[in-house]
TrEMBL record:
A GO molecular-function descriptor: catalytic activity
Protein name: MOSC domain containing protein
Species lineage: Bacteria, Bacillati, Cyanobacteriota, Cyanophyceae, Oscillatoriophycideae
One Pfam family of this chain: MOSC_N
Limits of the MOSC domain: 92-263
Length: 263
């Protein structure tokens, strides 16, 4: 590990789980530890299961723009200019009908204002990755750019000013947590995030890369920092850090430029 100054360079919110991100300059922490507005809505089928990238690759071709101030969302299908706009507070039924028509089966959208719908319900805090890590991974794949990897891994907080995989120091053994701080917000680092099939697919088309996971696992093992807590890697298909945030931090904000400090 090197003596560097880690700082927040990007903040990304995903208002509807599995759909496009919104870049913002500041986020607010909820009592649950989640970021306000992140994965606040999710799409469900009639059996109550998520309609997401893990279960339906058609979701990759939906393009969205979400206005965090008005909660209006515009949608279109990749390569289509037919754009529909919905006020998610006033016309949730209309949005659900559009999505049902697209997927070919009935769906509905649910909202959770307290925690959202994180993949890791035990650690609903924001996920963290460094820009240098994304750049390093891009070098493993000749046809992938950093922005495409950013869309695949879907982290909330991106940090700069540090070398690749610096964030791998933000967790410790399974029975412990690691304390750190971003701006004025206290964090608990939990574990390196286990990845799923979604990151093997192109974020815009859903096209699968059969070799992505094999290359990733091989290179991740090769480049794993010597000081990392290796007991947390039962396999090497892990990237970005899952976190918890104590409820004492509710209402605090994180902004672009805030420093990340180990405590």
């Amino acid at each position: 590990m090197t003596n560097t100054i880690a700082y927040v360079s990007r903040l990304l919110i995903y208002p509807i789980k599995s759909l496009n991100e919104v870049s913002t300059d500041r986020v607010t922490i909820l009592k649950s530890g989640a970021i306000k507005g992140d994965r606040q809505w999710a799409i469900f089928d009639q059996s109550g299961k998520f309609v997401n990238g893990k279960r339906n690759d058609k979701i990759h071709k939906i393009r969205t723009k979400f206005n965090l101030e008005t909660n209006k969302i515009s949608l279109n299908v990749q390569e289509s200019e037919d754009i529909k706009v919905f006020d998610i507070d006033q016309d949730l039924e209309g949005l659900s009908n559009w999505l049902s028509d697209y997927f070919g089966f009935p769906v509905n959208i649910k909202q959770d204002l307290d925690k959202g719908f994180p993949d890791d319900t035990l650690s609903p805090g924001p996920t963290i990755i460094s820009t240098a890590t994304l750049e390093a991974i891009a070098s493993w794949y000749p046809n992938l750019e950093v922005e495409e990897l950013r869309r695949r891994f879907r982290a909330n907080i991106e940090i700069s000013g540090v070398p690749a995989f610096w964030e791998d120091q933000l967790f410790t053994t399974a029975e412990k947590t690691l304390n750190f701080q971003i701006g004025k917000v206290q964090f608990l680092g939990i574990n390196p995030c286990q990845r799923c099939v979604v990151v093997t697919r192109h974020s815009q088309t859903g096209e699968a890369d059969a070799n992505f996971q094999k290359i990733f696992v091989t290179k991740r093992q090769e480049t794993l920092p010597h000081w990392v807590e290796r007991s947390r890697f039962n396999h090497f298909y892990r990237l970005a850090i899952n976190t918890q945030v104590p409820n004492t931090e509710a209402g605090k904000t994180i902004s672009i430029g805030d420093e990340l400090r180990l405590t």
